[in-house]
């Protein structure tokens, strides 16, 4: 899948899994965290491509993210290997759990600074990938990220929502690439060959269900268009109650 497609599927997955009215909802969050989480999950859905030097996330915060991309590519064994596996989901989720646990007490209140920093980074990446800002608007992307950091710090509903966002985003990315012809090395570092010639299990331990064909195909475009429509409709529906929720929180003071 292309980067914008991954981001769009991440946002749609979060909204589908967190809306109380959704038939597949397993996480129940207030409207403001549903919207913020949609953006962070869109960014998280690009994390797995951090093993590619030309990926959006690799250029999100140069030169730091570029150097990290080189290191991740080396550790992961190349593109669509370690970062596109069950092990990759576990590692990225564990890192987000550790980072989200960073809290700072101020004047008797506790702020989830770790959550805020992760939210800032992921939202900036998502805004760039989805072209939500003017072309070349890296500064604007990070300005939006700062807003997300503040919201992520004061809106945090416990310490679990950012790790959940990362886990969902990375998982959706891997599932999306598994729907293309190249597939993913799901069991990396193991690379088991199939016991016989199989359509969905390729030599070298690559698994696929190529319903979308090649990356960037018209089938991918059609699939993502449907998910984007769902996301837009859901976001419009959530915007008014989310605005009221944020206004009420700011009026009452940040929670401890």
From TrEMBL:
The chain crosses the membrane at residues 83-102, 108-130, 142-162. InterPro entries: YdjM-like (IPR007404). The keyword Calcium does not apply. The lineage of its organism: Bacteria, Bacillati, Actinomycetota, Actinomycetes, Micrococcales. Pfam families: YdjM. One of its GO terms (molecular function) is hydrolase activity. Keywords: Hydrolase, Membrane, Transmembrane, Transmembrane helix. The keyword Transmembrane helix applies. It comes from Micrococcus luteus (strain ATCC 4698 / DSM 20030 / JCM 1464 / CCM 169 / CCUG 5858 / IAM 1056 / NBRC 3333 / NCIMB 9278 / NCTC 2665 / VKM Ac-2230). This is Inner membrane protein.
């Amino acid at each position: 899948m292309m980067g914008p497609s991954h981001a769009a599927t991440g946002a749609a997955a979060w909204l589908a899994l967190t809306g109380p009215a959704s038939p597949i909802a397993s996480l129940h969050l207030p409207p403001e965290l549903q919207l913020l989480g949609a953006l962070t999950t869109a960014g998280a859905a690009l994390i797995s491509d951090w093993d590619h030097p030309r990926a959006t996330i690799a250029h999100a915060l140069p030169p730091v993210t570029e150097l990290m991309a080189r290191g991740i590519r080396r550790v992961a064994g190349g593109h669509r290997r370690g970062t596109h596996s069950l092990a990759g989901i576990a590692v990225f989720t564990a890192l987000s759990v550790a980072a989200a646990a960073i809290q700072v007490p101020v004047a008797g209140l506790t702020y989830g600074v770790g959550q805020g920093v992760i939210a800032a980074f992921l939202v900036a990446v998502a805004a760039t990938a989805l072209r939500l800002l003017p072309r070349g608007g890296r500064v604007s992307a990070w300005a939006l990220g700062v807003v997300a950091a503040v919201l992520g710090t004061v809106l945090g509903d416990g310490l679990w929502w950012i790790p959940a966002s990362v886990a969902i985003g990375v998982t959706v990315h891997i599932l999306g690439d598994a729907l293309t012809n190249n597939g993913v090395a799901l069991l990396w570092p193991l690379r088991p060959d199939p016991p016989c010639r199989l359509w969905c299990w390729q030599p070298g331990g690559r698994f696929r269900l190529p319903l979308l064909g090649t990356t960037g195909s018209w089938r991918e475009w059609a699939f993502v268009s449907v998910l984007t429509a769902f996301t837009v409709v859901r976001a419009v529906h959530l915007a008014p109650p989310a605005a009221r929720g944020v206004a009420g929180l700011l009026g009452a003071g940040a929670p401890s």
